[in-house]
């Protein structure tokens, strides 16, 4: 039995593959378009080899149905590796061949990377990449699917770190994902939908949540749904779920706000138990012209302006919640909590219809590509009786670890915020349960500082003490300045002597 590859080893190995592209014409923001498909291609072929060998040993011959995925003749990793020239063409043909042979699960899964562009990927560079991956077996006997999946997630995060500004388009920090999923608390057999699914982190978070609580993740087969506008990112999401051992899911490419893929037989939107998303912040030109006569009736609370699609996403997600069990979690910029105009009208509608359950204000600079402070909104189709007519406002702006270029929400932070949310009770300076009547008196704003503020004067010393503290600090500053002047004077070189020749200096 070969030694199992550890997660640490695999993570290091995969990042070394990315380093091969360092200094090449391939832009860092595009690295994932090449490295991730190569990893998936190698994994498929190594697993196929294991299945082939096992069939030969068991039956004396190979059978098609012994393989999870089919690898047609000439499309195996080994065939590409042995190609002497035009490696990019061979690689692209192999990937397209595998997609065609496995259309149910793999159609379009490898994305649209420009493998044949020799200006970006000369044969020598591609051969270096292929040889690097060839040195490590990625079959099930060496690497469990959870390990491969976790290493794949690691690589996605590393690419996000390397391309900070563009990363927000496809990657949500997993600590934020974990908080949102834990609040929604998906159960076995429930349906999960992400209308802006990026690399699939929200869907995987839901599966992990159930698994950690002793549930069977196989009950999600056929119950995970996601839509993603970007072709490469949607391909990455599908590879991500497959590498985590999931097969029966629906990740579709398309513009959710203009053309939602998931609909019901009656022509309306399909509905789900859990709807979860981190859509693009304040998206412009999002599809206002479609929503003027939206066939799915998503502008039920108002038609957002063309300059910001935040409440278009919210209304789409509300329409996608199942009756009774439906609940949703969405990340928005905090401006969505208090902006007026049509957004204020939509916010008022959602509150008056008692759909908003929890508002969580997060620290700034947690998300890639923006330093803005974000918030999480939790909405529910049917609140528990004890929460009817109430909204929990949580100020989690102090829950973070400061980093050099970005702040981080650590597990202890998410655990505390989750505890406040689940308790649905007042927590001094952190959380308050607000009646809808009070929110109406505040003109339907959800600005967190209107409801959760440290008590005035609690940490402010009396005026007389403050004046004395200021005088003492000022005196110390003056003393420090005087001391510095003395030190500088001692270090200043004296000017040369101006005495005449033959005269003695008084210090001689």
Protein model, in words:
- The chain is an alpha/beta fold and 508 residues long.
- The protein has two domains: 7-162, N6 adenine-specific DNA methyltransferase, N-terminal domain (Ferritin, Up-down Bundle), CATH 1.20.1260.30; 165-450, 3-Layer(aba) Sandwich (Rossmann fold), CATH 3.40.50.
- It is 42% helix and 10% strand.
- It contains 17 helices and nine strands.
- Strand 2, helix 11 (231-243) and strand 3 (250-253) form a beta-alpha-beta unit.
- Helix 1 packs across helix 7, helix 2 (31-59) runs antiparallel to helix 7 and helix 9 (174-184) packs across helix 10 (201-212).
- The chain is globular and about 90 Å long.
- The relative contact order is 0.08.
- The model is unreliable at 498-508 (pLDDT under 50).
Outline of the structure:
With 508 residues, the chain is an alpha/beta fold.
Key attributes of the depicted protein:
508 residues, alpha/beta, Ferritin, Rossmann fold, 2 domains, nine-stranded mixed sheet, 17 helices, 42% helix
Q: pLDDT below 50 for ≥5 consecutive residues: which ranges? A: 498-508
Q: What's the helical proportion of residues?
A: 40-55%
What strand order characterises the main sheet? 3-2-1-4-5-7-6-8-9
CATH topology of the largest domain: Rossmann fold
H/E element order: HHHHHHHHHEHEHEEHHEHEEEHEHH
Report, as a whole number of angstroms, the end-to-end distance: 89 Å
Dominant shape? globular
SS-based structural class? Answer: alpha/beta
CATH superfamily of the largest domain: Vaccinia Virus protein VP39
As a whole number of angstroms, the C-alpha radius of gyration is 30 Å
Main beta-sheet strand count, sense and barrel state = 9 strands, mixed
CATH class type of the largest domain = Alpha Beta
Mean pLDDT, all residues: 89
By CATH, the architecture of the largest domain is named 3-Layer(aba) Sandwich
Number of strands: 9
Number of domains: 2
Helix tally equals 17
Beta-strand share of residues: 5-15%
